[in-house]
Each structure stands twice: as structure tokens, then as C-alpha cells.
Amino acid sequence: MGFIGNEWFALYRIGVGRRIGSAALVADGLHARTDGFTSLAVLFAAGAVALGFPLADPIIGLVITVAILAVLRTAVRDVFHRLLDGLDPALIDAAEAALAARPGVRSVRSLRMRWIGHRVHADAELDIESTLSLADAHRIAHDGEHDLIRAVPKLTTALIHAYPADHPNAAEQHRHGGEPPTETSAS
Q1: Which helix H or strand E contains 29, and what residues bound it?
Q2: SS (H, E, C) 115-135
């Protein structure tokens, strides 16, 4: 009965954790699963000892220890990865491909994604055709945000900067608070 209860709670916690993007809840579900299998192992060890196999108890104890360490390793890795804002590289590749596929985008200058709670946020800089109007550049950035939200699970917000592709220093000037260089002519 203990195994069934723990497994039911484990499946529920893992499922909800994955659905909402909570590494901690998934880890808690894995812990509940380990508790369930530990209950079965203790029952098996007690039965084996009762049947005359006294070494079953320490052997099962070692097996339980290894199982707990394996779950601990996985949980610590996943939670630590999340704390460092780690995302699956395939998601970053999918996001970059979605942005690069937009008409008018020459290249994706930079793309940064991070976890904020249970959701992902993205910041991107795009090099767009310099012949496009400001309204077209805004539309590309706005549509790019929607493309990212469709391409990356758990991504809910994105900030897209569009820079004219023919002016490579415009983004650098913007970051440092300066004005991009302008051309002047002497008369």
C-alpha cells in the first residue's frame, strides 16, 4: 500500500512539475518514487530474512543507498542547472532558428534566455535589412517575439531589439548609452 501511494504521488508531482516547469517539484516526485521502491525493498528484505537469508537485509540496505544517491544526484543536477539559468541547448537553437527565419532578418546578433521562476524569458538582438522602415522593424521584432513563444516551451516573454544590418556599431553604441556616429559634411 505504501508503494502504491508513493508512486501515485510521485507520478502526480513529476507530471505537474514538468507541466509548470518546476525542477523542485520534479525532484520531490522522484524522492516520493524512491520512498515507494524503498518500501518494496524493505518488504522483500524482511521476507528473505524470514525465509533464512540473513544477508538480504544488508544487501537491500546497500541497494537502497545506491538508489537514494542516484536520485539525489539527478535532483541536485537538475535544480543546480535551473539555479544557473541553464536551458537545453536545443531550445536555444530552436529559438535562434525561429528568429533567423523571419523575413527581413539578416542574422541573430545575440540571444540570451533564462529562467524566471517557472517561465523562460528571452532577450535577442537582430540585424535587419537597413532599407526597412521603423514600422517594419517593429513588426519584425513583435512577430519574432510570437515566433519565440511558439518555438520554446515555457517561454512567456521576450525583448527583441532590431538593428540595421549595415550599421554594426549601432548596438554597441546603444549598450553604452552613446549615440551612434552620424555623418556630417563640411561646406
Answers
A1: helix 23-50
A2: EECCEEEEEEEEEECCCCCHH
Bridge partners (DSSP) of residue 160 are 124
> Closest Cα to residue 17, out of 1, 33, 3?
33
Query: What's the gap between Cα 175 and its chain centre?
Result: 26
Q: What is the pLDDT of residues 31-71, one digit of tens each?
A: 788 888 888 888 888 888 889 898 888 888 898 888 888 88
**pLDDT value, residue 157:** 84
Amino acid at position 22, single letter: S
| Backbone φ/ψ region at 100: left (φ over 0), alpha (ψ -120 to 50), beta | alpha
- Phi, psi angles (nearest 5°) of residue 112: -130, 130
Q: Are strands 155-164 and 119-128 parallel, antiparallel or unpaired?
A: parallel
In angstroms, the CA 23 to CA 40 distance is 26
> First vs last Cα of the chain: how many Å apart?
92
**Span 14-34, pLDDT tens digits:** 888 888 777 778 878 887 888
Distance from C-alpha of 25 to C-alpha of 15, rounded to nearest angstrom = 9
Backbone angles phi, psi at 76, to 5 degrees: -65, -45
SS3 105: strand
Pick the closest to residue 17 from 89, 110, 98, 82 (CA basis). Answer: 82
